[in-house]
Amino acid sequence: MTTLSEAAGLVLNTADPAEKCRLTRQFAADWREGRIVEAGAVPPPSRPARPPRPELLPPNRMPRRSYGGVPGRIALLHALAHIELNAIDLAWDAASRFAAEAMPKAFHDDWIQVAEDEAAHFDMLAGLLAELGAAYGDLPAHDGLWQAAEKTADDLLARMAVVPMTLEVRGCDTTPATMEKLKRNGDDRTPPVLEIIYHDEIRHVAAGVRWFVFLAERRGIDPVAAYHRLLAERFPAGLKPPFNHQARAEAGMDRHWYEPMARR
After folding, report:
1. Residue 227, Cα to own-chain centre: how many angstroms?
2. I want to staple 139 with a disulfide (CB 3.0 to 4.6 A). Which of 53, 64, 78, 181 is the partner?
3. How far apart are CA 198 and CA 178, in angstroms?
4. Measured between alpha carbons, how far is 204 from 36 in angstroms, rounded to an integer?
5. Alpha-carbon gap, residue 29 to 36, rounded angstroms
6. Residue 134 belongs to what domain range?
7. In-domain check, residue 73
8. Nearest alpha-carbon partner for 249 in 208, 202, 211, 207
9. Is residue 248 situated within a structural domain?
10. Are the beta carbons of 66 and 74 closer than 8 angstroms?
11. Cβ neighbours for 69, distance < 8 A, ≥ 6 positions apart
12. Rg of the Cα atoms in the chain
């Protein structure tokens, strides 16, 4: 493997989740340790390869998640595992799709680290599913995350606005309450994993904010105004409160970024 874009393409074209995670760890180490040094410019596929299961359904046909009982926990863990699998691909896509932007090495460092984190998250969630006698693919899933990637494939600024700064930060809003509900229902296995994911998500959102501001300033536009404009264009449903103000502030998103875009 000679360039980062070639490595990204191989991960994105790998359907098996376990192999996708293995390749992510391998190529992340290769980049970190200097065996891959060039970003390259091989375009990624328009869609990542996917295993034959799970069946992909519209969001309104998805099974309801719950916090008590084995079936409810399986449904929750499966949904989260699906998010993390998509997040691996989203990180590799971000690191390789926008070669024309000529981003600094630190940008690639960040998104390769994100991909490696997401692979670790998927592995942990798959392990919890296995403890319950289930596996990724046993339940249907939806394609909303990759649809967001397709809608922002033309512009790295839009990608940063929609994926880390809107979709991923939503996990920071909801995860603490999810952990509390699971604990109240006697689940002492899932919350520690969600705690790890939660703190990693804050770092990922911070990376999105950092590179969004970098790009906006390089283009000579106000970052907050640009975020509001892009959200109105690419995420017209608006942002759903309540917000985790502390987590968002840790990620570099003060209230003036998101409160004006909240649903009324």
Report:
1. 18
2. 78
3. 11
4. 23
5. 9
6. 59-261
7. yes
8. 202
9. yes
10. no
11. none
12. 18
Residues listed for the chain: 264
64 occurs within a structural domain: yes
The number of domains in the chain is 1
Evaluate whether residue 104 is within a structural domain. yes
| Structure token pair of residue 151 | 């809608």
Beta bridge partners of 141: 56
CATH number at 97 reads 1.20.1260.10
If phi over 0 gives left and psi between -120 and 50 gives alpha, with beta otherwise, what is residue 186? left
| Whether 24 contacts 92, CB under 8 Å | yes
What 3 state SS string does 57-78 have?
A: ECHHHCCCCCCCCHHHHHHHHH
Structural contact between residues 258 and 248, judged by C-beta atoms closer than 8 angstroms: yes
Strands 141-142 and 56-57: parallel
By the 8 A CB rule, do 160 and 212 touch? Answer: yes
What is the C-alpha separation between 123 and 196, in angstroms, rounded? 13
Q: Read off the pTM.
A: 0.95
Structure tokens at 247: 């987590």
Residue whose token pair is 């995420």 = 235
Q: Three-state SS for 202?
A: helix
